[in-house]
Amino acid sequence: MQGQALPGFRDFYPEELALRNHIFTTWRDVARRYGFQEYDGPPLEPLELYTDKSGEEIVQQLYTFQDKGEREVALRPEMTPTLARMVGARAQALKKPIRWFSIPQLFRYERQQRGRLREHFQLNMDVIGEAGPAADAEIMAAVIDIARACGLTSTDVRLRVSDRRILVNELKDRHAVADGEMLGVLSALDKWGDEPALTERRLQRALGDSPERRGSVTAFLGLLAKEDSATVERLLGAPAAEPLRECRTRLDAMGLGDFVTVDFRIVRGLAYYTGIVFELFDAQRSLRAICGGGRYDTLIQEIAGVDLPCVGFGMGDVVLGELLKERGKHAEAPSRVDAFLIAVGAEDVAPVLKLAHELRDRGVAVEYALRDAPIRKQLELAVARGAPRAVIVGPDERKAKVAVVRDLKSGRQRKVALTQVRKGVFK
Amino acid sequence: MQGQALPGFRDFYPEELALRNHIFTTWRDVARRYGFQEYDGPPLEPLELYTDKSGEEIVQQLYTFQDKGEREVALRPEMTPTLARMVGARAQALKKPIRWFSIPQLFRYERQQRGRLREHFQLNMDVIGEAGPAADAEIMAAVIDIARACGLTSTDVRLRVSDRRILVNELKDRHAVADGEMLGVLSALDKWGDEPALTERRLQRALGDSPERRGSVTAFLGLLAKEDSATVERLLGAPAAEPLRECRTRLDAMGLGDFVTVDFRIVRGLAYYTGIVFELFDAQRSLRAICGGGRYDTLIQEIAGVDLPCVGFGMGDVVLGELLKERGKHAEAPSRVDAFLIAVGAEDVAPVLKLAHELRDRGVAVEYALRDAPIRKQLELAVARGAPRAVIVGPDERKAKVAVVRDLKSGRQRKVALTQVRKGVFK
What we know:
- 2 copies of one chain form a homodimer.
- By secondary structure, chain A is of the alpha+beta class.
- Chain A has 2 domains: 14-326, 2-Layer Sandwich (BirA Bifunctional Protein, domain 2), CATH 3.30.930; 339-422, Rossmann fold (3-Layer(aba) Sandwich).
- Chain A contains 17 helices and 17 strands.
- Chain A has helices spanning 14-33, 48-51, 56-60, 80-89, 133-149, 164-175, 179-190, 196-207, 211-225, 229-236, 242-253, 299-304, 317-326, 349-361, 375-384, 395-400, 418-421, and strands at residues 37-38, 44-46, 64-66, 72-75, 98-102, 105-107, 119-128, 157-163, 260-262, 276-282, 291-295, 310-316, 339-343, 366-368, 389-393, 402-407, 413-417.
- In chain A, the strands form 3 sheets. In chain A, strands 1, 5, 6, 7, 8, 9, 10, 11 and 12 form a 9-stranded mixed β-sheet that branches. Chain A has a 5-stranded mixed β-sheet with strand order 14-13-15-16-17, sandwiched between helices.
- The model of chain A has no long low-confidence stretch (mean pLDDT 92).
- At the A-B interface, helix 1, strand 1, strand 2, helix 4 and helix 5 of A face helix 1, strand 1, strand 2, helix 4 and helix 5 of B.
């Protein structure tokens, strides 16, 4: 006998699915308002779609196997390679900029940590074929508007934004960090604060036998980590900060500036992003990032051989769902039915079926008992289903061409003409 | 470089996803009207969920492998075992009858035939915990109403219904078929007409050295196969046909009788169904079945150890999608945006961003160019996006507190007060 899902996989009972659908509906609605079109790809892909170009971490965590046709295949751990493949295959025909979104389920085999999932759903939104900062701002605005559409305000969440090009210039010019050392230094910044020993080791490995440069880089990164405002302002004045300044100007014009903080600690996947990067956090940073994204101008070239700049983000259902539950911002599950129909006797069943079908044809959600039962039992089921009202049909009512409509909260009931009830008018 | 999805897997470009979403939306809407709640489970499940109780054919076609934790796992080939597991785990707490639906993606490795897919999406609707024929009728009504909600009529599709119990009684009583021979005889009926040689072999294997019984059974099955009305009516008069008669009465009361044909050739999975079975076909039977289902009263007992009778069906997205395209009943992809905003000069960009955001906040779908371009270029993009109108903002318009609204079909344009445009009123 089978009792459980695999560890790290979720069963969605109707309560949980109601929250998931609430999140999906919000995602789709914001994407629609921004003129994005939905696409999807296969959850199973050729393994080499990931082994060549994705980060090492992802490949180690793949669900991968050989299918019955001896192809090496993998459950998708992320959507972007599929997106790159699909866009690459029709790169000529698709009108740029491409505005696409998708809500794939993604899979990673992580060593099980407490409650860590091995699957999640992730909204992917991307603008493809536009290199300028207006596209970055558009994507960031969509992130913020999703939070707003969920009922979250600028006191609930913050979009933390950086541009690695600013840091790279600064580290080169002021701290004599060479190109070959750059990734090591940035990966040290990525762990700053959370894992000091790891940070230290990474800096040492990156900069080697140069205690002077290590000292100067450490001091600089320390200022960034504590969000030192003078340092942030100085960096924002640099020529390399022009795209980031433009983004802020545009987000201000949209009225969304309150949600945005420049935070140079945001580094993200080094093998992947090429410009502006951002993450959405709850204001207290008590949860993991709700969303992360940025500009990745070389990936489609690498996967599909077509030169198309991109900016986009991924937003999972898990952290967002936790935050919404924590803040009480998840929608109440709507009532399952608008009316529960009750047949008093056996000869009332056919008229009730007819009425049920007329109402359903009008879009009214209707249920009724599927076996003969006393009225009391039928009313109990109506209440258990959360129906707001019962519509009772008996021989007397049929003769008088009415139905008894009973409010299941107050218990009050009244007769309503059948011609009205048939139209879904219950009073 | 990666060009293609795995054979048998689909990329859903926006046009294809629009049809898929149209089908999903219709499924969800009918399920809602019938008071069904949505659930979902993992696409990856323990292998033994399928090996024990599913049909042999399914197990041979599983996508199965060992995960990094050395568990034997499989991509789900059908939803019912997951449903049985989930219902079994909460059998006490769930109020019966349970009315649940789900839209899982399912996976089968079939030897590639022309265009045969290895994945599809399938609506599953089930009533659990009610053994009477009212539940069967309710499920069949939902099938018919999905067809109707797709714009199909009783001249487009037919629900073909049988009840194996009627046949079993008849074969026992009139043709001396023993219990041990029954499955063989029914499986012969299943291939009747399509594969005469296979039918013949199956009958021979089932009934062995008894040319007399083979003759009588063959004659009987032949009458069923040609839908001989006297035979059908006689069988419908038998005591064992009471549930099927009751279903027809109820479907007639709902006004859906026109869609229903009794067809004793409908056999379906022998290891699975225990009573009424049905399939929905296009009226010409030029396509495979759109949907199949029936009563399966023992499966939850076998999988989860809880005695709960069930009736339900599965309806895939592929055959239904083909039929809708063939009949021109698929929804046109809706316009991507309601308005395309155009900034005349650089100083109009900020006001356009503000207006775009105000409109999106009201639920209006808005797009605009993401780089500076001449008005002509911006209008071209607006047309390419299928926007019904462009809203043009320049210095003169801003001074006069208006915008120029241009109808992109007729080319006519007029000035509209900004206070109106901001509210999404474009005339």
